[in-house]
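Teaching assistant here, posting this on the class forum so everyone can see the example we discussed in section. The complex has four components, and the goal was to see what a joint structure prediction looks like when all of them are supplied at once.
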Amino acid sequence: MSAIHEVAKRAGVAPITVSRVVNNNGYVSGETRGRVEVAIRELNYIPNALGASLRSKQTKTLALVLPHITDKFFGAIAQGAEDAANRLGYHIILGNTDGSETKLEDYLLFLAKKQVDGFIFVPTSQHIPKFFLKHKIPFVTLDREAIEDQVDSVRADSVGGAFQLTKHLLELGHRHIAVITGPEDHSTAYDRAAGAIQAFKEAGLGDQPQIYWGNHSRAAGYEYTKQALATVPRPTAIFAATDGLLIGTILALREANLRIPEDMSVVAFDDVPYSPLVDPFFTVAIQPTYEMGRQAVELLVARLAKEGPDEFRDIILPVEVIVRNSTSVPAEI
Amino acid sequence: MSAIHEVAKRAGVAPITVSRVVNNNGYVSGETRGRVEVAIRELNYIPNALGASLRSKQTKTLALVLPHITDKFFGAIAQGAEDAANRLGYHIILGNTDGSETKLEDYLLFLAKKQVDGFIFVPTSQHIPKFFLKHKIPFVTLDREAIEDQVDSVRADSVGGAFQLTKHLLELGHRHIAVITGPEDHSTAYDRAAGAIQAFKEAGLGDQPQIYWGNHSRAAGYEYTKQALATVPRPTAIFAATDGLLIGTILALREANLRIPEDMSVVAFDDVPYSPLVDPFFTVAIQPTYEMGRQAVELLVARLAKEGPDEFRDIILPVEVIVRNSTSVPAEI
DNA sequence: GCATGAGGTCCCTTGTAGGAA
DNA sequence: TTTCCTACAAGGGACCTCATG
């Protein structure tokens, strides 16, 4: 509550001297420092960062705004970001938008007013990166490709992961593979379909995967799996592009009395929401979430430091494919 | 980037007029307002909240610092807090301490410097509430009882929940019940044991529940369940005081080849980490998490408004007991 | 070189006062 | 005079530059 000048007064020095003691810079004699420290303690002085930031034009604060903090995926990103930020002398302010575009905009504006030094967020629409560009506010985009090209971004290698998962299925002998993914204009959804197609192409087969564009919901996974099961010839393998879709797929297969992997091989991105009571079962491509958070912060801080516009970077981190028990040779063979 | 005086200059008015337009207070003619709004758009003006807060001595910002944002429990609290805050014209800044006391202190100090209007946090130690009291910073404590008595707090009715769960077991005929809970100096852990004891007392039985004090980890649940199974007479029911402990209990029972509920009835607080693929199975006491967040914010904001020290409140919210399939009559009967 | 301080600056809004209809 | 609109000056807290001993 008390301000620097009150501390100064009590210690019989000028405010700037208190500042020097607090921030440990400039010359202060041991004797003076002692008096100031006593005054600080007696008055319960806590420096007011508003004044300091106003003056220094820095808050040493980064905003990380995410759709669903409760998700394991975003949670790990937040961890990585936080650790990296602390290491670099920054703090992270977390915002949770609950998947709402309005809330995202609201948070971003709120934090911009607060003069946060930089932003990290998932670009769910185009106009937000544009907004930041226009206002010359530094930011790094996460998880998705950000369309605009003067943008720094960090994401996982969806193409590569999908390629590997599909290749794995092809090598097992599957030829009819259903790919259930998100909307075509999400880079992650698009890239995962693209990776699957590429694997088919590279295998030199005339076949093509069957692509279902939907969204990332459980309901979509259920619906499109049912559709896929109704096609002739019926697919022998399903690639669910997200863990949400995977759940829908599992439910639909269960309903159709199809066993995994005996009757249907299943692969996916990310794990089904973790249950410590169940052994990991699915063959999946796992994204380096912690690392994504870390690199996003490091890129942002580097940008803050140089602030020269060098070239913008689109960092794509490798994905790890883990073959477990949800895949086997197709039943027909 | 541009400041209020630049906008004012371009619009041919005084800074204060721009302020009036932005904040919608005071008298501004439609014509002037128009000119100012144009200038704001042309200059991409975003008000600097540092200056404003410095002057007004308010940030309209609340800090919510939690141990594990990824937990369903804390996630829902955050939701409730966020919604309530927005409704009341406040913003929430989220901090995740990852269970670390150091990180908690770090966050709290950081946000205090940033002049956050008030704090909500889980009092994992005594000296933090003391710190806030000393500095006269408004705060509300969450989840646990806060020892100090000049403190506002919001928590769930652990005693009542434990009482009901235990009563349910007693009514089924169980007499040997093991209660596995956290450390004795956590109010939640203590209260749950107390509720169980109270249920025994009220049933007028000479018996006593068997209390195991540990921590909230899975490992503790596993360990104490094994210990309980080794006692004679062996308990016919286990009350795991948290979902973490419950997992350990389940694993230990599985290892001992004991079926739930045929060989052992099990009750717990909170659900096992949610898996959408498994039907809810356990008889549990569920805490009103969303409501806890909401009430914490409302209490804090009320405190901020009156700032008179009336009496402090310890809000205890009711817990809902849901009887499902993990409990039945004891095998011996 | 060492130790301290006065003054100006960052951006915004409060309190108060003045001008126009 | 009353009502409306606009503006000046003064902080608010911290820190940098420059000056002084």
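For the discussion questions: The mean pLDDT of chain A is 92. Chain A touches chain B through 47 residues (CB under 8 Å). Think about how each of these relates to the inputs above.
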